[in-house]
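Look at a sample.

——
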Amino acid sequence: MDIMLASTSNIESLQSRGVFSGSRIIPAFRANDTTDVWGVIRGGNYRATPSLPYSGTDLTRARAELCLYSMTFNNITEADTATLEAYRDFRPKARAAGKRHFLEVFNPNMPTGFTAAETGMFVNDCITRALASLTADERPEFLKVAYNGPAALEELVAHDPTVVVGVLGGGTGTHRDTFELVWQAEKFGARLALFGRKVNMAEHQPTFIKWMRAVADGDARPVEAIRGYHGDLANLGLAADRSVDDDLLITEEVLIAAAER
């Protein structure tokens, strides 16, 4: 684990307690919270409307040098224009505050009529359009994008080899989903795995990260990682949430076609 991402307030709390002192882990805060990620608000209906930009963070007061900026495109002119303009306005503020950022681009949160393959190409085009407006010193440190299959990832990586591409984790799924996603992402050109729930929901996070690293480094295949992880849980005296057989299943459609057999 190289980066710990949290809200501005939680990073401040952790920094105040000296959590990162002497650690190689880099703290990072969320510079914005687009409306399509407001699903944790009970009774909220925000995901039923196109994503709109929002940021409540004062960049000059945030207690970390690195931050995440998120965007979502929906093929809706007004909403996508607002998204791009908000990112344009964010960049000089970040530079003035001495902050570096990495850029997260979600898949559309509204129905578009696209197939899965078309979604990947649409998102790629939106990313390349956004980055084309940036000078070299404005560019994000790296990208965080949804995995839309081998063709979309390879296309994005090949478009500009100087852009480091990372994949986001998405939903929880099985642990096979996680290890398969790490394996496929590395195979087709990604260089970072930026996972939240997939790690947080594991029975033992340090052991889970150890096996993720083994898969990313080519020291274990996804099936081997499942069996190794379950063996480590047993040695720790911990009960797995799923049986080995159930955890070997791939449940995310985008992973099936290119899955390791």
